[in-house]
Each structure stands twice: as structure tokens, then as C-alpha cells.
């Protein structure tokens, strides 16, 4: 284990200084040092996806990503998507479709769906299933989760058409 050193992490648009060894899992720093509890500890082995964050927009398993890998990159957590009064369309869609039972997998599902919709605003059902296939849901909420991603695509399209209308 390396000695603790001051590290600057760019999280949700803000730079945070933490003191940690560079091989500390990013998940520990987010949850324990920065109190960002959106990312969850599931397996701790990179297998379940509960800890997913975005690193420069790419879904990344923060339990097996060291602080060193995250340095100098933009880290986005669930807390960086929307607020309680202004939810991100993906969050809104998961609520509308009631796509949760225990909810433990939702951080990973939402962050992975967000990254997918940023790349592909109109994904097919097959694409949604494929992209989320490595995110495990023990409650069997898959049907609702796929519907939520489809609904999120609709909400984002509506949001974009309103923006274009305002600009015109
Ligand atoms: S907790 Fe990171 S993949 Fe399971
Ligand atoms: S809703 Fe419980 S693990 Fe997915």
C-alpha cells in the first residue's frame, strides 16, 4: 500500500482534495471522504455494476478503479445528474416506470443508461439490454428497467425539442 498523499479529484464539476494512497479504490474515496453515496458497494470485484460512475463520460466500476486512474479526469456520480427538485430525465424515467424493488442496483443502471443515451439517443431494446447486461439486478426488475431507459430516451427527446423551440 502506498503512503497517503494529497490528491485532487474532479467530481461533478468540483475539485476536491483528499489525502489517500494512490491505489485506494475510487469508490472508497467517493463514499467515505466525499460522502457521495450514490455509488454502492456490491461485490467489490468489478462484477455487479452497483458502484458505477462515469469517468470522462464512460461507465466505470469505481470499486476496481484506483484513485491514480481517476486523477485528472472528470468523475460524474449519481449526485451529479440531477437534484431533488430538478431530476435528470433518466432519474425521472426510472421513477415514472417504477423500475426498482430494493433499488441497490439503480445507481449502476442509471449511470450506465445515461452514458448509453449520451452516445445513442434512440437505442433499440436489444441495445439497451446489451448495454445493461453486465449490471446485475438481484430483484429481477429488468423489464421495468428497460422500459425506463426507453422512457428516458423520450423525455430527453422532448427536452431537446423544447430547447430547440426556445432557440428558434
Ligand atoms: S461493487 Fe463494483 S462492480 Fe460490484
Ligand atoms: S432493484 Fe434490487 S437489485 Fe435491482
TrEMBL record:
E.C. number: 1.17.2.1
2Fe-2S ferredoxin-type domain span: 5-81
Xref: SUPFAM superfamilies: 2Fe-2S ferredoxin-like (SSF54292), CO dehydrogenase ISP C-domain like (SSF47741)
Pfam family, one: Fer2_2
A molecular function GO annotation: metal ion binding
Keywords tagged on the record: 2Fe-2S, Iron, Iron-sulfur, Metal-binding, Oxidoreductase
PROSITE patterns hit by this protein: 2FE2S_FER_1, 2FE2S_FER_2
Protein name from the UniProt record: Nicotinate dehydrogenase subunit A
Amino acid at each position: 500500500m502506498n503512503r497517503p498523499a494529497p490528491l485532487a479529484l474532479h467530481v461533478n464539476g468540483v475539485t476536491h482534495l483528499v489525502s489517500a494512497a494512490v491505489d485506494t479504490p475510487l469508490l472508497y474515496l467517493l463514499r467515505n471522504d466525499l460522502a457521495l453515496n450514490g455509488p454502492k458497494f456490491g461485490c467489490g470485484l468489478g462484477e455487479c455494476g452497483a458502484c458505477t460512475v462515469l469517468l470522462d463520460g464512460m461507465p466505470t466500476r469505481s470499486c476496481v478503479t484506483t484513485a491514480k486512474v481517476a486523477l485528472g479526469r472528470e468523475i460524474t456520480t449519481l449526485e451529479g445528474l440531477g437534484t431533488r427538485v430538478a431530476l435528470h430525465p433518466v432519474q425521472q424515467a426510472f421513477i415514472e416506470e417504477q423500475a426498482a424493488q430494493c433499488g441497490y442496483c439503480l445507481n449502476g443502471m442509471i449511470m450506465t443508461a445515461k452514458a448509453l443515451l449520451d452516445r445513442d439517443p434512440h437505442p433499440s431494446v436489444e441495445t439497451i439490454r446489451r448495454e445493461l447486461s453486465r449490471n446485475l439486478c438481484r430483484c429481477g426488475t429488468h423489464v421495468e428497467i428497460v422500459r425506463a431507459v426507453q422512457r428516458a430516451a423520450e423525455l430527453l427527446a422532448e427536452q431537446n425539442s423544447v430547447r430547440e423551440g426556445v432557440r428558434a
